Amino acid sequence: MATTRTDPLTLEVVDLIGTVVARYYEEYDRAAAAHSLTGAQARVLGLLSLEPTPMRKIAQKLKCEPSNVTGIVDRLETRGLVERRPDPADRRVKLAAATDKGARTALQLRESLGFAREPLAELSHAERAVLRDLLRRMLGVDTES
């Protein structure tokens, strides 16, 4: 049976991580609403503004069901922010891609963010590297990559 750590330091760290995540999503959702988008729509649009992506890969990145992504992309497509196109590498696969209007909207959204855009802005490069390595260790991810 695993032991549970309930010492004050552990509880404070867990609480701080939760606060950072909540603050990130609150700010992101407010910025999305200013563009008449939901937070999920804004996150999908942000991903697609970087590169055209298969729907399944979007679902994996957002850790949700592909059917949810289909609905989000449908709504973004209706607004002219996203389009579907065949994957040049495999014409059986459909890619979702930001339109010019979608890319401009994603850029405006990113520029309107403060904390969510640069939550680590106050940390030095060395501090960010230590934090990255600690988070990777917590998640069991190889720290050599």
TrEMBL record:
Transcription regulation as UniProt keyword: yes
Any Pfam family hit: MarR
Record keyword Metal-binding present: no
SMART domains reported in the protein's UniProt record: HTH_MARR
Gene3D superfamilies named among the record's database cross-references: Winged helix-like DNA-binding domain superfamily/Winged helix DNA-binding domain
Domain HTH marR-type: residue ranges: 10-140
Keywords: DNA-binding, Transcription, Transcription regulation
PANTHER family reported in the protein's UniProt record: MARR FAMILY REGULATORY PROTEIN, TRANSCRIPTIONAL REGULATOR, MARR FAMILY
Protein's UniProt name: MarR family transcriptional regulator
Source organism per UniProt: Streptomyces sp. 900116325
